[in-house]
Structure formats: C-alpha cells, structure tokens
Design a protein that fits this description.
Layout: H1 14-31, E1 33-37, H2 38-56, H3 60-70, H4 73-86, E2 95-102, E3 109-115
Antiparallel strand pairs: 1-3, 2-3
Helix pairs in contact: 1-2, 2-4, 3-4
C-alpha cells in the first residue's frame, strides 16, 4: 500500500526541504521563471498553484496564511495585487514545467518552471541598468618633488 507517500523527499531533511521550497516559491513569484532540477520543479508546481488560489480570495486570513508560508511581504503583495488579477478568469494551472536538458557535471535532468502568461520584464528586476559610457576621466597624477 502507498499510504502517506505523496511527495518526494529529495534526499533532504524535512526542515531543509521546507526552507528550500520556501526560497524557490519566493524566487518563482519574484522572477516568474526559474531553472531547477526536474524533481524539484515537479514538487514546486502544486505548491505555487495552491498559493495563487489562496491569493485569489482576498481577505486577511488568506493574507496571513500566505505570509506564514512565504515569510516575505513582497511576495505576498505580488500574489494579491498582480497574480490574482492576472489569473482571475483561470481556474487552475497557473504554472508549467518545461524540460531543459541535462546539467553538465552530474547529468541531472533540468527543468524550467514558469508562470503561465508571465511578465517577461520580471526576470530583469535585480539586474543593474546599463549606464552609457561616459568619458573616462583620468585621475591627475601628483608630481612628487625630487630631493
């Protein structure tokens, strides 16, 4: 019988697994697309779908429930303000897992997990904007007086 075997343990302790998925959920909400191994992506998909479904019902208890899972106020605000509006007509299936070949080194199967109808600009949140090349000013060299 297969009772209580409904998830992958990923060779990690329960605390490490919870922290791993919390960080991955926050990254997925922030960037709307992340690259990870295939088993992790398959375990992450139902979790992100459930969080977005919770965020679609806007009340304080659901906001507290999301914050207890994510521990990040930015992610909670994004789920409530952006993602719930984006997926208001959709009844499920807010994310997808795409296979992305194999990792060099250990040949682990890789996958891209992304939100459906994602914002492409979300990937560029943390990247610094390029500054136009200004004229490079040379520091003036001080002449040392000889003895």
């Amino acid at each position: 019988m297969r009772h209580n075997l409904g998830y992958r343990k990923l060779n990690k302790t329960s605390e490490h697994r919870k922290a791993l998925f919390k960080n991955m959920l926050n990254s997925l909400i922030k960037y709307e697309q992340i690259i990870t191994t295939l088993p992790k992506a398959k375990e992450l998909k139902p979790q992100i779908d459930k969080l977005i479904t919770i965020g679609k019902k806007k009340d304080l208890s659901n906001q507290k429930k999301l914050f207890s899972r994510l521990q990040n106020q930015f992610s909670v605000k994004k789920v409530f303000n952006e993602l719930s509006k984006r997926y208001s007509k959709r009844k499920g299936g807010y994310s997808r897992v795409l296979k992305a070949g194999f990792r060099t080194g250990d040949d682990a199967p890789m996958a891209v997990i992304e939100l459906v109808d994602r914002n492409v600009e979300a990937k560029k949140i943390d990247k610094p904007k390029k500054v136009e090349n200004k004229e490079k000013t040379k520091p003036e060299t001080a002449k040392v007086a000889g003895k």
